[in-house]
Amino acid sequence: MIDKIFSSMDEAVADISDGSTIMFPGFGNTGIPRNLMAALLTQGAKNLIGISNGSGGRDDRIDIGVLVRARQFKKLVMAFTASPHPSRATIFNELYEAEEIEAELVTQGTMAERIRAAGAGIGAFYTPASVGTELAEGKEHRTIDGKEYVLEYPFHADYAFIRATRADTWGNLQFTLAQRNFNPIMAMAAKTTIVEVEEDILEAGAIDPDHVHTAGIFVDRIVKIPEDGIWDSVPQR
Amino acid sequence: MTEKTPLNRRQMAARVAQEFREGWLVNLGIGIPTLCSNFAKEVIFHSENGVIGYGPQVAEGEENINMVNAGGQHVSLLPGGSIVHHADAFAIIRAGYLDVSVLGSYEVAENGDFANWKTAGRKGGGIGGAMDLAVGAKQVFIIMEHTTRDGKPRLLKEVALPATARGVVKLLMTNLGLFDVTPGGFALREIAPGYSPEEVQAVTEAELLISPDLIQISGTG
């Protein structure tokens, strides 16, 4: 019987070794696998490479910022390596200025497509984004039908942490609204995909197959968020 | 003589929103561009996180934690709205489905280059989706203050900061005027109340073309 359920967040991240590459979804406070991140903080793996849109740490909630603060990353790949304003600097910005963490800056669409390419078996692709900028320097260029493109390679990962609303025992997933963001493409791009789920895990067949957002074949481990786990809330204005 | 009145942020956003046409698919950058949503009618707003057809910011206490736009604001999803994942959100951007991308910037050059992701003397930058939006959208509009806080020009012959994209800006709104970016350079089409073209030129590095039909901007914001 196919059963991907793990009994705790700690158990689901226990085997992550130093130096692993991990994908972290989330955008604008939603779709962030905060419980798995908290477990990784406790687990303590070091020299990690993280792939994430941003570096978190803007409020006191658990996000990628707490892993940065705990010095668990050697390097982050992301779309923002500077804060919008020096007054809003995060722990990542401080460590990056001090050259205590490495970073690769990628324009967000190229980041998404490099993740998608990894999950889709694509060896590389040409994109028009970043042509004529610092980010394209040293990269292979090609003119196709009169338009200039730059060659970009996939991002593969050892693990993806995923946050979903609903799952069944096969790992079929549903997301809610903007919670989806990077979750489906990261789930496909990693060797091992670990999901934290908000609702009680359903029996296989309980989710209408036409309404599955991420097919269970991409999912390896599922953990129900416990009652005393980390639940999302709207930040106070 | 009219008193010199630079446009405020709302007035700049309102004027740019007048350029939108019914049914357009529109992406608004953070900052002043976001304000365009307060004035636009009958367009569809797209956000980098895959939200298509979002509406106004919702009242405190009525937010849905899973409904945010690219600025992280809790917004509503209008009837007819839809959700795609991040890679598809950027497929929409790169493939030219967006009618317009409205962005903020630090500098714009007379050939349509612009620079909005990295300031001088700082390590790293914040690109977000700007490089994708800039090359993918059918049109790129920029809204920014006409000069830096120190009064230095931002409408330049060439960008000094690292470029976001080359030759893409079509329309530029500043607190002093509305400019078409033409093969001949910046063409001043509308001007802030109380200013003369010479006064705008004096705080502009690039040489301005002055539209023969130059009119004063009516502040509606």
Can you walk through the features of this model?
- The complex is a heterodimer of chains A (237) and B (221).
- With 237 residues, chain A is of the alpha/beta class.
- Chain A has a single domain, classed as Glutaconate Coenzyme A-transferase (3-Layer(aba) Sandwich).
- Chain A has six helices and twelve strands.
- In chain A, the strands form three sheets. In chain A, strands 4-3-2-1-8-11-12 form a seven-stranded parallel beta sheet, with helices on both faces.
- In chain A, strand 9 and strand 10 form a beta hairpin.
- In chain A, helix 5 crosses helix 6.
- The longest helix of chain A is centred in the middle third of the chain and has 13 residues.
- Chain A is globular and about 50 Å long.
- Chain A starts with 8 loop residues before the first helix and ends in a 13-residue tail after the last strand.
- The model of chain A has no long low-confidence stretch (mean pLDDT 95).
- With 221 residues, chain B is α/β, with parallel strands linked by helices.
- Chain B has one domain: Glutaconate Coenzyme A-transferase, CATH 3.40.1080.
- Helices cover 14% and strands 29% of the residues of chain B.
- In chain B, the strands form three sheets. Chain B has an eight-stranded mixed beta sheet with strand order 2-1-5-8-10-11-12-13.
- In chain B, strand 12, helix 4 and strand 13 form a beta-alpha-beta unit.
- In chain B, helix 2 packs parallel to helix 3.
- Chains A and B meet through helix 4, helix 5 and helix 6 of A and helix 2 and helix 3 of B.
Helix content of chain A: 10-25%
Quickly count the domains of chain B: 1
Rounded average pLDDT of chain B: 95
Helical content class of chain B: 10-25%
Morphology call of chain B: globular
According to CATH, the fold-level topology of chain A is Glutaconate Coenzyme A-transferase
Low-pLDDT runs of chain A: none
User: In the CATH hierarchy, what is the architecture of chain A at level 2?
Assistant: 3-Layer(aba) Sandwich
Can you tell me the CATH class of chain A?
Alpha Beta
Number of strands of chain A: 12
**What is the CATH H-level superfamily of chain B?**
Glutaconate Coenzyme A-transferase
Helix- and strand-based class of chain A? alpha/beta
